[in-house]
Amino acid sequence: IAGGDRCQRAWARAIGWCGFLGIPWVIVTGSLAYNEMAVLLMLAAAMLAWTAREQAGAWRVGVALGLLLGAAVGAKLVAAGMAVLPFACWAVVTTHPNTTSATRHARALAVSAGAASLTALLILAPWLIRNHAATGSWTFPFRVPLVSSGNGWWTEEQMTRFAAGHTAAADMGMSARLRALGDAGFLQGFGAAPDADPWLPQWSVVFWIGSVAIVLLMIGLRRVWHMRSMGLALGVMLLAQLVFWMFATHLKSRFLLPCAVPLTVATAVAAAPVLAQQSRGIIVALSALLLTAWSPQPSLLMRMDTRTASAVELCASGRTVATDVDGQGMVREIANDLGPGTAAFAQESATLGDAMPLAWIANWQLPPGAVLGSEGDADVFWCRTTPITGTVWDGGPLTRVLRAHPDDPVAAVRALSIDEHLTHLAIGESMLARWKASGWIDPILTPDRVRAVAALLNPVARTVSGGVVYKVPLAH
């Protein structure tokens, strides 16, 4: 994409790669169980494939695009608007038919588009068919006009709640959407954080540097037509992503991450020719040092964020946490704090009355044959036997028994034992409160109902996520 000689292409790769690594959302999503990296990889690979269309042929390139973009949508459905649509805009703008061969270029573009569409449909077919067979909707739980009709096992209320949780309020004005874009992208990290999401300025720096690079390319950097065309294409691509984000998502900063592709590409394409022609060693050395410093800086700035201080210190120490027993401070070693735990450490935590991860309780504190249910405490990955739980949209065992007995906590507790076959129940009130504040929680899970049921259960242990594990009385 950058073009030029070998040195220029090398600089473009270095700038793009180091710039990408310095984006905080890349570090967050790349190190946790998120699908964003697959979307970004497929989008960038599709752009590379499109640049080879003259050599590979329209049909072969179309098949490659279908594989890549279909996989992107399969990884995360929002990729349809944050990857496929922007790529289509970029591809159309970068196609420059000569006046003498306009028909041939149009035919090749149509062939590529057709091959890509068919291939992507084949990639997504297993999910689409299985979805329709199970729910009556091709795209459940998302509603798409003329495509989806069934609700599956969900009620209309659940469908409405899910849709509301994944889109901005319909009555939200344009000015409010633009302010949200500023907070999530161009102005992130400056001023007070509006929510608990990462609030670091590198993200906004990337937006400004990338946008300036796009403008420089569009006005004709070094008066090279290829550069102007690339700047226009990347600008249209970024604009498509921003518009889709403002009107088709719930305005979370993480969903802007695909913008990193055009932003870092533009920066690399604009800066590479300048650095490649530098003959002074000091300029080259300083540029290399700047790129090297940019890559690890997310960890440095994260240490400066007071909201993550405890987590950072835990990761930094690796094996120690501070506790307090009878007013005396002490430090004890904890191995596997984020893993399945050990019987010794779980017993030590229980003896000290400490909160512990749900997995420690499930693996080492419950009696053999215990059946654990969970409502609002989703930290179940390290549990050797997965607790009976559900998504916030479906609800877990507590939701089900309260639907059946909304005003009778005694009957609800009996149903936990008889109908749900539980011996223990984890209730994460902290998470339930966050779900309620977000508008995601099932209306049946009111604080009064949850606490009325909890009052009839026997507390066993506290979880580090702000919940409690209870023993369910055996129903007679």
How would you describe this protein?
By secondary structure, this protein is α+β, with helices and mostly antiparallel strands. Helices cover 58% and strands 6% of the residues. It has helices at 6-21, 24-31, 36-51, 53-56, 58-75, 79-93, 102-135, 156-165, 174-186, 202-218, 225-248, 260-276, 281-294, 297-304, 309-317, 343-352, 358-365, 397-404, 409-418, 429-438, 447-454, and strands at 320-325, 328-333, 372-375, 424-427, 458-462, 468-471. The longest helix has 34 residues, at 102-135. The model is unreliable at 312-336 (pLDDT under 50).
Which terms would index this structure?
2 domains, alpha+beta, 476 residues, four-stranded mixed sheet, 6 strands, two-stranded antiparallel ribbon
List the helices and strands and how they pair.
Blueprint: H1 6-21, H2 24-31, H3 36-51, H4 53-56, H5 58-75, H6 79-93, H7 102-135, H8 156-165, H9 174-186, H10 202-218, H11 225-248, H12 260-276, H13 281-294, H14 297-304, H15 309-317, E1 320-325, E2 328-333, H16 343-352, H17 358-365, E3 372-375, H18 397-404, H19 409-418, E4 424-427, H20 429-438, H21 447-454, E5 458-462, E6 468-471
Parallel strand pairs: 3-4
Antiparallel strand pairs: 1-2, 4-6, 5-6
Number of strands: 6
- Overall number of structural domains: 2
What's the story with the biggest beta sheet?
A: 4 strands, mixed
Distance between the termini: 72 Å
Structural class assignment: alpha+beta
